[in-house]
Amino acid sequence: MKKSFLKIISLFLSLTLVFSISSTGVMAAENESVQLPSSEALADKVTEGAISSIRTVGSLFEGLEPVDSGDAFLNNILKVLYNALNVIVEVLVKTICTIYPDPAGWKDLADHSTDTFLEGRDEYKTSANAGNCWSLGYSSRSLIPDDFESGKYYLGRDLMNKKAEGIYDDMRIRVAVLDDNSGDGAVVLGAIDALGVTSTDVRSIRAGVLEYCKQEGIAVSSINIMSTHAHSALDTQGVSTEFFYKLFVSSIQNLLGIQGELPFMEAPAYFKQYFVEQSIIAVTEAFEDMESGSLYYDSIDASEYIKDKRDLVSKEDIPEIAALYFVPDSGSEDTYIADITCHPTSFSASNGLVASDYIYYIDEYIKAQEGANFVMIQGACGQLTRDNIDVDTTGMDEWEEKGADTKFLGETFGEFIISAEYETELDPIINVHHKEIVITPENSILALACEINLVNNQVYYLEDGVGIISEMGYLEFGNKVGFALFPGEFYPEVFWGHEIIGDTTWDGSDWQYASLADSVEGVDVYCVSLANDALGYVLTDDNFAFMGHIIGEGIADEVLSVGKHTGSYFVSNYLELLDSYIK
């Protein structure tokens, strides 16, 4: 009870502070707007933005529990104050967004080009054609620039503005290109060791790959660039690069209609260009490496070494690893592709070294044990992270000790992957389809991030507001194993159904969707997060709590999310995609 009381006091103080700031901000905006040429229009926009952000009075009382104890009473007060804080923060940020000048590069939706969007294959097939056979090509390249020692590159982790101080292991892109040789086009699976990669950069990579394929006469149906979500890699998005500088300078550039990179941001701009170019090379190398072989599938229980930081998902409900195993006819290197659901966050937030975490050690272990290749894709990781790691560091120097836990986890996962049975041989059948979606940010913090050029997602003007073009997809091998490709960081309960977190709900409503693991009859379907875009956390609508770090205990921080209804929007679009493709 004492703990709940202290939370109420701290939250009340937060409310008071934010309310005073937001009131001052709106008053200043209204006073300043009188002096602007378009004062009336601007004032109307500010008012409309603020009003549209304010939830109904009833929303302040969402999800209250029966008052049967003192703790329950205090928890209800805490929730009401918290909901009020959400409203005030959203009004404040939306007001800032309304006043802040839009970048000159924003376009009307009618000007959107689909040149680098691939719809996939037209027909869903349930049997292989005569002569179909598997082929796979592999490549891996480091993405660390040659002039890394200059000390001008940033680590990609939150808004930390932390420049990389050295290299612990590596940061790579790993690529597998697969084809069933049906003539319908190959599929690219590229995984970058990064917190996330925006759709803008994904489509730049696609453009280069498509140009190569056109020159070489190669049919390609799907090009997917994903992120492993490594928290100690170099910043591929811009989120960790001088927030306050961008906030100030971008306002001037936007006001003057100036496009292009900000002054003194040459290193981050160069790195974006560099990792895009290296990724294109890696994909083309994988195409050139293709050879025929057999493809196998298995699922692997690694729950002993994974936990949910919220203590909501039990060990028995931790998603299994989905693993594909390619054996070439020539006897050359085998290739493993694994969908693992675990945050690569073994290094602390204060770490200044570039590292891809356990992914690096899986790769090294599989090379050492099998002489094989490896590609990792990230599952519905949410708040899932490593667990049950107790490494004896006796005799290790400081450098070895720093990476002892992540090395243990990587080698453990590596052993699981190469030791699986792989008794299911897949028929040479690929089914793949993609759908473009337009996302309207409910959370104005994302809109502000786009306005100040913190991230380079392409924003479009809609009839009412703005939207971001993204995409989702479905990829299936052998009518046995499928991957649902989503552009955000999925929470496991969004994909596997609300039941895995019991009766936990923030607003008192229910999550209406059953497990997507069963979304295609006869197919084991797994989630892939951060596929072809990086749009923040994706939760069930009923458990969206915005600034959840204030509450703690079983609630995550949803500030880094498109909004409350992102989960249902993504899932409903995914189900519509399946309905239109699988008939």
Record keyword descriptors for this entry.
single chain; 583 residues; alpha/beta; nine-stranded mixed sheet; 21 strands
Topology:
Elements: H1 2-33, H2 39-53, H3 70-99, E1 107-108, E2 134-142, E3 166-167, E4 172-179, E5 186-192, H4 199-216, E6 220-227, H5 243-256, H6 266-288, E7 291-300, E8 306-308, E9 321-328, E10 335-340, E11 353-354, H7 358-370, E12 373-378, E13 384-386, H8 398-402, H9 404-419, E14 424-425, E15 430-439, H10 444-451, E16 459-461, E17 466-477, E18 481-485, E19 489-490, H11 492-496, E20 524-528, E21 537-538, H12 566-581
Parallel strand pairs: 1-16, 3-11, 5-6, 10-12, 18-20, 19-21
Antiparallel strand pairs: 2-4, 2-7, 4-5, 7-9, 7-14, 8-13, 9-10, 15-17, 16-17, 17-18
Give an account of the 3D structure.
By secondary structure, the chain is α/β, with parallel strands linked by helices. The chain has a domain at 1-99. 33% of the residues lie in helices and 20% in strands. The strands form five sheets. Strands 2, 4, 5, 6, 7, 9, 10, 12 and 14 form a nine-stranded mixed sheet that branches. Strands 1, 15, 16, 17, 18 and 20 form a six-stranded mixed sheet that branches. Strands 3-11 form a two-stranded parallel sheet. Strand 4 (172-179) and strand 5 form a beta hairpin. It is globular.
